[in-house]
Amino acid sequence: MKRNQLWAAVSKSLAVVTVMLIMASILAPGAWAAGKYKLLTQFNGTNGADPQDALFVFDAIGNLYGTTPVGGVSGNGTVFELSPNSDGSWTETVLYSFTGGSDGLQPYAGVIFDTVGNLYGTTAWGGDYGKGTVFKLTPNSDGAWTESVIHSFMGHDGHEPIGGVIFDATGNLYGTTSTGGTSGNGVVYELTPNSDGTWSDNTLYSFTVKDGSEPNRISLIFDTAGNLYGEAAMGGKGNCEWIRHGCGTVFELTPKSGGTWKETVLYRFAGGKDGATPESTLTFDEAGNLYGTTLFGGGGACGGNGGKGCGTVFELTPTNGKWTEKVLLRFPAKNGTNSWGRVVFDAAGNLYGTTNSRGGGSCQNWLGKGCGTVFELVPNSSGGWTEQVLHRFGGAAGGHPYGEVVLDGQGNIFGTASGEGTPGSSGAVFEITL
Asked: Fewer beta carbons within 10 angstroms: which end of the chain, N or C?
């Protein structure tokens, strides 16, 4: 009896020690906390190629939707759907292949649903004037989808809409263009639906370099009061020798009476330890703080970007009308560099994101060893954040994830990588199960 009691006590102690060791390894800086990694589909050109953004949306029955900027029937990009099967596999269906003409060319950003099941997105080029489009995909009763262009950019109203669109509560669409507008530095635009099925375009703001330039790959976000927030990759201030006209900004657009909007720069990146070149969509937490990533800056040497750093994850906190930046993570090259995608929260308050380069692994690229990572940031008791690397890309074909990840209701992580898959493939969709 005493032997059984002694063994039970020892077993309990060993279990506690084991859990402590596991937790210590998980919470150690830069810890390797690999999840189960699976390819859901691989692109071969015909079904799309080189995915650049997230699988932006789930529908009500768990299908995923996304875009590729190249590939498809004419090689000019696709919109695709991924449907889960009962055996755990997924089936890809190309919903639309762009021709490169008036229907658009190269959809970089993801797509979103309206309330009746239509999909909306952008193409960086093409359209009636060759300067990009906002498009709509309508499902038909036979399972096919019909594409229509709801706006073709002309240049003065914007050019090269690489980022995606979002809806407001009344059904208007909002987005940005990388260039074009009054000064050629990009715009924020609004599209309003008319009763006859057409859409009216309104330029809310044209960037001037001082307040930002080239809001490239972002989608705007709303706060609860109806203000818009976004990032501009360049402009502002700072000495960033690898880019022009400053190191980027975070901005807010506030609606005013009469239908006009006021732009306010919340933060100008200096290009040092605070980061440089923000290319991601922002994320709010429940307290109203903003989170984002930068491609460069943060300190440390990374080849190809002026030696100013490997990128950051940052937080902006509002206090008495001003916003204060705090860097949550300065990427070390061994854990990945150059984060293009948005960081997203899970239900427990942890952040997830991707890096496009480095991070170890067996493939080589122009920035060094490794082809990017999927990472998690966990808040710790000291008020900081601890990074965990969930996956390191680096097989024969490489990885290079540009977009954000999305989480399903069970906490599984989904994303795209432009170079991932078996040799000869043109990118892939992946899932990580923790």
From this structure: N
